[in-house]
Amino acid sequence: MKLISLTAAGILFALSLSAQAHDFWLEPTAYRSQEPNSLALQFKVGHKEDTSHWNLAWDRIVALRTYSFDGVADMAASVVPKTSMLPGMAKTTKLPSGTHVIGFESYHATSTLKAKKFNQYAKEEGLTEVLAHREARGQNDIAGKELYSRKAKTIVQVGDAVTNNVLKPIGHTLEIVPLEHPYKLAGNTLSVQVLFKGKPLSNALIDAYSLVDHSAKEQAVKTDSEGKATFKFDVEGPVILNTVWGVPLTNSSAADFETYFSSLTFEYFQSPTK
Q1: Domain ranges in the chain?
Q2: Counting Cβ atoms within 10 Å, is residue 198 exposed (0-12), middle (13-18) or buried (19+)?
Q3: Using one digit for the tens of pLDDT, what is the confidence trace for 171-203?
Q4: What is the pLDDT of residues 95-152, one digit of tens each?
Q5: Cα(75)–Cα(217) distance, integer angstroms
Q6: Is 226 exposed, middle or buried (0-12, 13-18, 19+ CB in 10 A)?
Q7: From start to end of the chain, where are the E strands?
């Protein structure tokens, strides 16, 4: 998640495993705006209180777009890369009333972990296909090398027009899609579906936690046979959902596995009618 070069990314990834610093998400300056407005966006990495700004750079970005009820807008021209003086950011155009999804995809990087750390990481993230592949080939005692990339979405609301475009996938290889609108929940539960290459993904582990209350309980739920999972939110404010999935690579000298990291952020708030 933090990367300036492929080598540096692999080293940082390995060193940060224990702190789950692989969590990566999009953080808008505001998740809700009463009036049509442009919103700034930061790229964050870490876990709970241990967070930092991702090393945003032009050569790391595959796509950065705003998905609205009336179309898609490219945000690449707004990117300000991270420097020693700036945290790195991007900015939307002026968004009209409605619900908008901002989606990001990174290029691939590589990471190599020693056998014990790799097995622990794969187990913690629920990478069942990766673990089964290593077990079947007697590779549990050798280092694991993966090719990985990041996908992230955030949902922002402008004005009072709540639009259902957020319930549709935007085409990420690994994607968390809400099955109810996060900004018009009848209660404090939200169901989502994980898609991998456009199809429901079962047995994927999703972590969910508050981005503002670090003492709040973290949730970890595996998707069912339809790729679905349900979460209950007790703390108002921004929340993040994360999932990871990996598959074996064949005939590749670059890595043994390809791993995808995906996140979804939005702001949970209780309805004033409750």
Answers
A1: 6-268
A2: exposed
A3: 999 999 999 999 999 899 999 999 999 999 999
A4: 999 999 999 999 999 999 999 999 999 999 999 999 999 999 999 999 999 999 999 9
A5: 34
A6: exposed
A7: 24-28, 32-33, 40-47, 50-53, 61-68, 71-74, 90-91, 98-106, 109-113, 144-158, 174-178, 189-196, 199-200, 205-210, 219-222, 228-232, 237-248, 257-268
